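Hey, quick one: can you model this chain's 3D structure?
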Amino acid sequence: MPSLTTSAIVCAVRHHGEHGAIARLLTPDHGLTPGYVRGGRSRAMRPVLLPGNVVKAEFRARTEEQLAGLTVELAHSRAPLHAEPLPAAAIDWSCALTAASLPEGTPYPALHQALGGLLDAVEAAPAARGWAVALVRYELLLLAELGFGLDLTRCAATGDAADLAYVSPRSAAAVSRAAAVGYESRLLPLPPFLLEGGTGDWTQIFDGLRLTGFFLERSLLTDRRADVLAARERLVERLKRAVA
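Sure thing. Here's the predicted structure for all 244 residues.
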């Protein structure tokens, strides 16, 4: 990728040197792509390089192996949402998850579209009920795109597709209500909205977050990436306080 100009979502930024920053952007056709922004820590650039913002990005590098120089122009700002505790926590977590999980340079167009949709939902409905279900679905899609998808099509024990109510933490497959009798405490509740579409009540939403959180922590956010789970914990705690 000697040269690339594209729209992108800012996912993560870290300081580099005295004045610069390395930004990791999710692009539609080239996946997660890093670049060095000269002056990225300046007053002018800080509100541009915020997680969740959409930018027009230009990457330039002499070789494929070299970290590209990156210039960005703000296309859509979500800066006001960073002043609101719940929307800010949702943006921080979804972008941090994306940056920590995806390999660089691999296209994930479905994830780019889904992350954009989730951020749009947060922006449109900062009260949380409107975007919490979208967050669970995004986490589930990310697991699937990276090869850790859950099998929610039929019961792991009986093969039946009816009345699926739980997920086995061992096999990541659905379990019917009848097959789960006596084992409910060992299984993860499966919220109906993941099977039927639509939305759910807060009990179902928290069941969904518990479900995806279990598999994210087990399959993706291990070793050095485990620290990003702190962003998820902040989000879940703020959600619980908001609906208490």
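One thing worth noting: Residues 53 and 78 are 5 Å apart (CA to CA).
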